[in-house]
Amino acid sequence: MNQQIIATNNTNKWVPICSFSEVEPGDVMQAELPDGHKLAVYNLDGDIYVTDDRCTHGEASLSEDGMVEGEEIECTWHFGRFDIRTGKACAMPCTVPLKTWNVEVQGDQVFVEDDRS
């Protein structure tokens, strides 16, 4: 995958993470930033959303161990849920929200804004 940065905003940068066509509608897949940080990429009715891949409760991979139910991802380790669009924790035992990422789709390429300092 081409790791070209498409734009910068102060210290933030847009980084390609996957192709739009790789993410099946209603599904989640794992992507990775160049430094190895894992992301969960979701296709909700043609709209792409990205969150951190790790459940904030049990450290499970949401892309590997999660199940998309409507607009929520359920962590199958302890059945906690998060709103995919906002990262909000929606069901116990999850109380800490997921980090969400700004997304840009250009052609078939999905980019996220890396705002980590």
TrEMBL record:
Keywords: 2Fe-2S, Dioxygenase, Iron, Iron-sulfur, Metal-binding, Oxidoreductase. GO terms for molecular function: 2 iron, 2 sulfur cluster binding; dioxygenase activity; metal ion binding. It holds the Pfam family Rieske. The keyword Iron-sulfur applies. Residues 15-112 form the Rieske domain. The keyword Ribosomal protein does not apply. It comes from Marinobacter pelagius. Coiled coil: none annotated. This is p-cumate 2,3-dioxygenase ferredoxin subunit. CDD domains: Rieske_RO_ferredoxin. It comes from the Bacteria.
